[in-house]
Amino acid sequence: MSSPTLSAAPTTPVSPAEKLTLTVIGLGLLALLPATFDADPWRAQLFFYVALGLVSAGTLVWAARTFGRRPAGVQQDNLWQRSSTGRGAVAWLTALVLTGFYVILYWFSSPDEHGNFGVLNNLVHALDPLSQVLRNRPADQWFLYGTFYTLAVLVMGGRALWKYRHSPYQRIRTVSVMFFQLGFAWLLPGLLLALQKPEYYFSYFWPLKYDYLFPGTVSYLLQDGGPGLGVFLIFWGVVMSFVGTPILTYFFGKRWYCSWVCGCGGLAETAGDPYRHLSDKSRGAWRWEVRLIYPILVLIVLVTALLWLGAAGVLPAWFTTARPSQFSLVTNLSPVDGLGKIYGFFIGSIFSGVIGVGFYPLLGNRVWCRFGCPMAAYLGLLQKHFSRFRISTNGAQCISCGNCSNVCEMGIDVKQYAQRGEPIIRASCVGCGMCSTACPRGVLNLENGPREGRYQASPLIHADSLRILS
């Protein structure tokens, strides 16, 4: 007698129109090869813009046809059966390409004396006309990255708008991250450079943008920004880090930043949306989260404090001034400067970029936000202990479908809270609201209510229990 087997859930057949749009996207990706390696600059530039146009148009048309024809609602069917979203061969290939791009960008694209950017040279110089218009200077590898990043948020944001068109909260939140990435993280920094002012990203704050409050950066802003703009940029960074962040988090939780403003969160919520179900919900993953994210926050606070103590003359000069490396792990750097460089290499580059984005298809879209981001740790502590924000639950209405846990990108087993009628007050919660959007019964609600009773379970679950007992 043969053992019973579970039959696979039926998959939706791919229509000819969908196949056509996917073919267009594939041709766009293929066009990146001659754009990267063609020796003729004009042809390389032509292939580059053709590639961007095909990928962008194909993705938006695919999203309109795929999600526009479905009934409204969050549908996560068959995600684990697809090679692209179920850690299959396509997912591994995607992770390899993303990781390889970040490795090349960070460590193999610095220009030589002739302005050659290595493997990325054609792609960088293809953006020279756009860079001249926006920044009044030729493109570099970071302008290429910023353009790719912004385009990914905008195009995949369009996909998210189609997918979650039934939810006003998700529509507004998606438009918000698209706006801040385009305006505050791409256009404004470029315009500042065009005006011969310091490049500054207004949507990033310390400790995420950790060097913004380093003494060297403050001196640079004052020198290149002048007494007016330079002082304003420093004031903006300090006030948003130590005044604006606590106040906004008190009223709205960490969602005001992690899900509405931050570029890292913006990429995760748009380009990373297909992978949100991959987040590990196990207790072991939560333990690693605590072991990693809070020590990283402590480390950057320590480095920043030591640098300022050195600048104030409190610490010995050798401790904070560049000198021979007898005291340091990094050549010609003092211990504190060396520690800052090590932090930038392992946390700012490898963790946030190579792993944080490259591993989207394998570990989910919030690996960096969940395990490594010091800003998320800072906001999470404020949210858990001082904020009015919570996700209330009505356990009497929960049918244990698990949709909420499946879509939680931060690895929270939301269903367990919903079944007990307990409010969700977790430091890791970014308030994306997907659990509430995916719930078919309206069990979950994002609230900024009074702190009184914030940790109490819903009275409805207790009333229901009393009825059962009687």
From TrEMBL:
PANTHER family: FERREDOXIN-TYPE PROTEIN NAPH (PTHR30176:SF3). Keywords: 4Fe-4S, Electron transport, Iron, Iron-sulfur, Membrane, Metal-binding, Transmembrane, Transmembrane helix, Transport. The lineage of its organism: Bacteria, Pseudomonadati, Bacteroidota, Cytophagia, Cytophagales. This is 4Fe-4S binding domain-containing protein. Pfam families: Fer4_10, Fer4_5. Gene3D superfamilies: 3.30.70.20. GO terms for cellular component: plasma membrane. InterPro entries: 4Fe4S_Fe-S-bd (IPR017896), 4Fe4S_Fe_S_CS (IPR017900), Electron_Trans/Redox (IPR051684). Signal peptide: none annotated. GO terms for molecular function: 4 iron, 4 sulfur cluster binding; metal ion binding.
